[in-house]
Design a protein that fits this description.
The protein is an alpha+beta fold and 504 residues long. Among the domains are: 127 residues; 179 residues, no CATH class. The protein is 35% helix and 14% strand. The chain contains 17 helices and 16 strands. The strands form five sheets. A six-stranded mixed beta sheet has the order 2-8-5-4-3-9, with no helix packed on it. Strands 1-7-6 form a three-stranded mixed beta sheet, with no helix packed on it. Helix 1 crosses helix 2, helix 12 crosses helix 14 and helix 13 packs across helix 14. The chain is elongated. One of its GO terms (cellular component) is RNA polymerase III complex.
Length: 504
Amino acid sequence: MGDEDDPIVEEIPVHLSKTLADNLYVLQYPVKSTTSTFDEGRVVNCCVKPINQQVKVDYALNTASNNYDAFKGEQFALAADGKQRDKSQKLTFRSGTMDKQSFLSAKPIEDVSRYLVCVMQDGEVHATPLKGIVAMRQMFSYFDKQDKRTKAEQKAEQDADGGAEDEELTQVTVKFARTENEKVRKAREKSFNYLSKMEAEEPWCETFWHDKNSSTAELERQKLFGGASGGVSGRMDTDSAALNVRPVEYMDMLISKEKTDRNIDSLLPSRVVCMHKLKQLPLLEQLKVILTDAKVITFRQILDLLPDRTLAPEKVLRLLPQIGWLIRGNWVVQSEFIYTEGSVSGTNGVIAEQMRKARDYILFRFTKCDKLERHQLATITQLPVEEIRDILCSIAKLNATDRTWSMLLPPNECFQSVDEQEISDRQSAFWTARSDKFSEMERNNSVSTTGTVSSGSKRIRKRSTRDSGSGSATAAGGGGVGTTGSSVATITSTSSYTRQLSNG
């Protein structure tokens, strides 16, 4: 889709402000009715617990309203504080009637690093990170006080009636606490009872509540704006300079690097590494993963795929020859990382050593020519055609016109630095040193067009089981090819090679 089909309608500048990032909370009222308006409510008391991020707010009730039941309000106050009020105890309702409703917070979201409070002004968006999000729910602690006071009164009456004398003796069991190790201690600190105890032990801190129309509230709202258009004249937000980065780095800043509870490795196919896990690997392991997945890749593409794009190309070039080979300007992973020791192929169960030799030979041939034939490679490597096809599919593509195979990427021998040319010369020397070994393989396993092997292969002739006068011969061994009149049979060590001869 071009730019003409999807035009840019408007560009909106975004400013990041962190002035209130350590103190900004969002208060939600999930159980509030549609008719309730807490914006106009009068707050008579407010306190917080900074460590556990708890907030408690008391909103005043209009006891003079026609909708307020004064009799019911006095009953609630009497039930909570009792008839005989203790002066040392803090009263729930000081006026003798239910004149307020209390709200206590709970944390619906633990991680709020992905949430922002945004304000738009003069065509610009100003964003501030949050410290926390809390859900405010109404408290009914006066009912708990009533139950507690009722139980205490009943116990006092039983003690006055002599109930303590009739109390039976109970057995006391002594338990000694075991010495806990580090693992048990961490598990205990994560338990619900421990967290509840820590929350209860933290004292409440009294705070001041400023009305939204007050001058103090207006000054705090000005801190939501960042940049030169903020509340302070001439103030430049230094955090805005962090946004002047490349698009790729900006995406890395947006994506959270923390681990999630869900294991992403279980969702990926086998031998596939996610980008987050790739960043945690050493550079050599990163290069091995990239070369294994990419099959055939250029050096410039390797630099683009590395998580750390500030690495010097010289450092990457020093490590690449340890895990890859340079084939006509393109990098290919070494065969030992594809076919590890002790493994077998998935098609015919060929051992890893034979698969590595065959793949090395195919890569050697690609250093000499542009196109290869699959049947010729199967004849020389002594591997089934299916295995040769699997190797070719990982590094080459099939040409439909002449049924030959060529590398996935065209030759790329335009080196731009001295280090690249030096590595290219070393790679050429490496393949030249192995050329004698591959030439011997070709001489031993090459087949002529007449179907007979060269002098290096064994030629076995067996007398026919029929009378010699019949002039026919039967080949001995599995899959041999018999010829009438000549009594010649070609025998190989594997049935797959005989299959190649039978197919021509």
